[in-house]
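Please, structure for the following, as tokens.
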Amino acid sequence: MSFNSIKIFLLIFVSGNFISCYGQEKSEHKQTEAETVAIGKVVIELDNQIWRIFQDSKGKYWFGSNGRGIYCLDGSRLKQFTTIDGLVNDTIRGIQEDIDGNIYIETPEGISKFDGMQFTTLKAIKSSNNQWKLNPADLWFGYNANDLYRFDGTSLYELTLPRKDLKKAFGIETEGVPFKGLNNTPYAVFGVNKDKEGNIWFGTATAGAFRYDGNSFLWFGEKELSTLPDGRVPGVRSMIQDKNGYYWLSNFYSKYKINPVLPNGYEKLQAVDLPTEFTKDKLLYFNCGIADEEGNLWMSTYGNGVWRYDGKTLTNLEVKKGIENVLLISIYQDNDGTIWLGTENDGVYKQNGDNFERYTLKK
């Protein structure tokens, strides 16, 4: 065999092996991709405990349960994802989306990112105060942190809120709340909301509320925002702004307006004048709130239905299962303006005019 013949033979042999390996690698990649896409289990109904509801930019609905993972409703198909599929924990406490369409799922054991194919767990970086920033695309999380996390799309920074003299402000020694997934300190973050100007608000267990404008903090150290005289700890779970510019911080007692002229930076007024027979023995706090397109406030309570405030009047909308009160955890407004309710004991409710009806999948 001539030297040229040997070269040709070797070239064919190497090329054949390369094509074979490449084809095998490509086939394995397709197989892996198919297996990844196939994660999750198709189911026909939601769990009875749905704590969080979210609609992403593609129109899919996400329902976070209190121990059975997360559900994704795409058209008429419902899929359930759990730790079997890579979710860090099956107890869901928050759902968000970034500018690239990735879904972030907050749990007591950490934060999972879902890119449409697989779940990954974000790794936190303990950060000094110089990592405090306020970028429009940042995502904020409160669970599984000493205080809270800021995610800038690349890194998850663990941040610390400014410490205050809580005993002087509230007149008592404040303590945290031993909820699973939350640090047992007064500064554990119960809620995060953005206002119309893009400022970020943090509600805590018993340390009041903080507003961050990207440069400095404004602290709301009012007694109704901490441990109550009878020992109850409602926490500041939701911070929303009404059409008159007042902020409602998880309670119906007071409303607040930013006023830099005042020493504490804000003014406080009575929120609404409620009858004594209603306020007696009731905890006048809401778990979650939203402002609709007309500026009306919608606020969900644990056992007393939904409250709507139109700027003048506070109206109660009952949510019942027969004669039993539905225990509400969250309230959410979807891309079309429809309001949804997440519950502790009866799945999901959906707005129908001035009423809320239990949501069931169409079969």
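Residues 1-36 have pLDDT under 50 and may be disordered. Helices lie at 3-37, 166-170, 276-279.
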